[in-house]
Amino acid sequence: MRTIADINAKIVAGSVTVLTVCELKELVAEVGVRAAFERVDAIATGTFEPMEASGAILNIGHSDPPIKIHRAWLNEVPAYAGFGAVDLYVGAAQPSDKADGAYGGGHAIADLIAGKSVHLHAVGQVTDCYPRAEIDTMLSKERLNQFYLFNPRNAYQNFIVGVNGGDRPLYTYLGPLQPRLGNAVYSNPGALSPLLNDPELKAIGIGTRIFLGGAQGYIAWEGTQHFPGQKRLPNLTPIGPSATLALIGDAKQMQSQWVRGCYFKGYGPSLMLGVGIPIPVLNEEVVERAAVSDAELVAPVVDFAIPRRVRPTFGLVSYAQLKSGQIQLNGQLVRVAPLASLRLSLAVAEALKLQIQSGEFLLSEPVAALPSDREFLPLQE
């Protein structure tokens, strides 16, 4: 057995052994679980994928005369202003008021992180203490009091594969799906994915320090739509969407290479985000769970041609099949592409590994476990 304090002492001393999750899997295949446990102190996981349930909180400071913001736009993207005179929240999936809507909250967030200036237009609720009615100005991250990401749902523990069995193209949150099973798209990086390597969420919890957009962030809470009760394989990994995380981190410290605005034609804007989670190697079970391969992980193939909450599926496919570039459905070979960047997901894990090795990143004890008993309730009409 090890403790996080033991591992942090090694980090401070410069003697810690950290592997990316891919390196860990290779080591287990070579020497076995017990020998790998004896050699490795921490595992770096990573993903780089669209995470539309993200957003940023900004405090812009008080103008003279002061304003109590009632409505606001950042580069024509509506921001929410209902929780303080000069506090704003901009959602990554919020489209701009421009006609095409291709620019959205994710782009505004990414622009600020990249050091660009963003135009603010705000309309005030005039009061005796806040007499100003309107303001137009430019914002930059250096001039914001606070600028941090607070993301209600990130880092899905598994997801779906989208296909289209209909007769016209569909434009979805997975991107374009071609008719008559013309293509398939999956979004989770599989064996690289942070939560698939810790299926019971034993190594992480509320308060765990993570890599978020190039900076150090934290798991703040369970994510929305957190559903750890999903059906699971004997290796304890879920067969579809399961646990999620709410994440928080200082956007002023983030790097533009890990935070990028994106747009899905016919659907809307989003945010490509790099998230890396360190897994402390506290016992052999941690190594055994993280040794899971793409061949041992599955996702459901869902037909988006049926416009219902519960859509028919074509069964389960393994991530090894998905990453081969094609799967077989109804006797037909279907080409497959990932929505997550597998190359950049691995690069996130490598960046986290280097931060730990250099002593910049210490592991943290969770202050509470993530819940394991949440149901996923549909809306009753």
Description:
With 381 residues, the chain is an alpha+beta fold. It folds into two domains: 4-51 and 150-357, no CATH class; 61-144, no CATH class. 17% of the residues lie in helices and 32% in strands. It has seven helices and 24 strands. It has helices spanning 4-13, 21-31, 33-39, 105-113, 284-290, 319-323, 342-357, and strands spanning 18-20, 42-44, 47-50, 55-59, 69-74, 77-79, 87-91, 118-124, 134-139, 146-154, 161-163, 170-172, 175-177, 184-186, 209-212, 215-222, 245-250, 259-264, 268-276, 278-280, 298-303, 313-318, 326-329, 332-338. Strands 3, 4, 7, 10, 15, 16, 17, 18 and 19 form a nine-stranded antiparallel beta sheet that branches. The protein has a six-stranded mixed beta sheet with strand order 22-21-11-14-24-23. The model has no long low-confidence stretch (mean pLDDT 97).
Radius of gyration: 22 Å
Query: Helicity level, as a percent range?
Result: 10-25%
Spans of 5+ residues with little confidence (pLDDT < 50)?
none
Mean pLDDT: 97
Count of strand segments: 24
Strand content: 25-35%
Sketch the major β-sheet. Answer: 9 strands, antiparallel
Keywords:
nine-stranded antiparallel β-sheet, single chain, alpha+beta, 381 residues
Compile the SSE list and pairings:
Blueprint: H1 4-13, E1 18-20, H2 21-31, H3 33-39, E2 42-44, E3 47-50, E4 55-59, E5 69-74, E6 77-79, E7 87-91, H4 105-113, E8 118-124, E9 134-139, E10 146-154, E11 161-163, E12 170-172, E13 175-177, E14 184-186, E15 209-212, E16 215-222, E17 245-250, E18 259-264, E19 268-276, E20 278-280, H5 284-290, E21 298-303, E22 313-318, H6 319-323, E23 326-329, E24 332-338, H7 342-357
Parallel strand pairs: 1-2, 11-21, 14-24
Antiparallel strand pairs: 2-20, 3-19, 4-7, 4-10, 5-6, 5-8, 8-9, 10-17, 11-14, 12-13, 15-16, 15-19, 16-17, 18-19, 21-22, 23-24
Helix pairs in contact: 2-3, 3-5
